[in-house]
Amino acid sequence: MKISRRKLIQTAGVAALASGEIPAAVMPDPRFEGKDTPKIALALGDGGAGGAPGDSLRRLKQLGVNWALSGGPPIPWDEAHLRDQFDRAKAAGVTLGNLMIGGFNNAIYGRPGRDEEIEKVIQSIKAAGKVGIPVVEYNWYAHRITEAYFEEPDPARAGVSWTGYDYELVRTPGRQYMVPAPPAEAGIKIKDLPALPNEGAHTLQEMWDTITYFLKRVIPEAEKAGVRLALHPNDPPAPISRGSQQIMGSVEGWKHLIEIVKSPSNGITFDCGVTREMGQNPVEVCAYFASRDRINHVHFRNVKVVKPYERYSEVFIDEGENNMFLVMRELVKHRYTREIYPEHPRALDYDRDRGPIRGYPGGGGYASFAFQVGYTRAMIQAALTLA
Question: How far apart are alpha carbons 250 and 166 in whole angstroms?
Fold first, then answer.
């Protein structure tokens, strides 16, 4: 006679109750983050402003967050400066695991001076390696078309705000955008905005050429330093950004990137929100890159998509189209052990009442991050339990 596992468990439970022996309702190990699990991280400033120096880090620790990320200083990075930043976080019980690097636009655009900038990037990566910062994150935008972000209400959560994105949006001076609309751009759709003089318009081939030149110089040095680079996808993944095409605006582009220089140091920031914004399945995309050990950082967030690439809303982590548990289970399955950032919190009255919230329209602060962290921890615990 065949007996299903479920039937066997039910039978055992009934027998235990009949005998008066109620099984202990204890979550099995592993329950907590460790060296072999994903690690929840927040930015150093996500603990909120106010109070004494170090209070933001203290607030991160109160959420059980032991890892952090931060923007880096101007390049070239200095080992002493990084060590001071690292040690101050460590004194509060937080490990700095990811620094964002920038300041090399000549390299991005292929302009004179790029070799000098690339050398500064290499110096910075070496400094990060000596201090023990394992991941350096970066962007490769010709232009990041954030002009189409706007605040929109969550219809079901009593005045909470989402962050909307609409590539067809018409620029209107006086309306609140992430990037204010100058009078000269009145009546122009976001998708038709002209190139900026300091950036120019660039083809896909031009952008692939410049990043190939960059990676072939930088990745060997990153390997020697024991540092992994994480290239964030184009976010928003709009088809054309002020006249320029975007190399990281498609999953095909992400796949091509990791083939330019085959190394764990040449990886991506896997953003399951951007993945869905492009109309792709985050679980499948996560499996592709995690199985190749090319995910060096994770952004963990949810969205609702009206039209891939062009119209979507960044929503609470528990109400979008992504199955966040299946994404987390994929990361655990492939033994991802670096940081997970539950980013893009929503705007709550509690945070608004404590002062202006910078950043994305409809974005939130510490109270919303607390919700994001709690939800993400539940996903990790569930995934670890079922691993």
Answer: 18
Angle, CA 291 vertex, CA 287 and CA 294 arms, to 5°: 100
The C-alpha R_g of the chain, in whole angstroms, comes to: 22
Instruction: Tell whether the model's pLDDT for residue 69 goes beyond 60.
Output: yes
Whose structure tokens read 């120096």? 53
Q: Name residues whose C-beta falls within 8 Å of residue 8's C-beta, 6 or more positions apart in sequence.
A: none
Q: Residues with Cβ < 8 Å from 365, sequence gap 6 or more?
A: 48, 345, 348, 351, 354, 357
Structural tokens at position 316: 């609470």
Backbone φ and ψ of 355, nearest 5°: 125, 175
The string of pLDDT tens digits covering residues 72-114 is: 999 999 999 999 999 999 999 999 999 999 999 999 999 999 9
Q: DSSP string spanning 144-155?
A: --GGGEEEEE-T
Q: Say if residues 283 and 323 touch (Cβ distance below 8 Å).
A: yes
What is the phi-psi region of residue 94: left when phi exceeds 0, alpha when psi lies from -120 to 50, beta otherwise? beta
Q: What letter would DSSP give residue 236?
A: S
Tens digit of each residue's pLDDT (9 = 90 or more) over 195-209: 999 999 999 999 999
Q: How far apart are CA 31 and CA 14, in angstroms?
A: 27
CA distance 248 to 312: 18
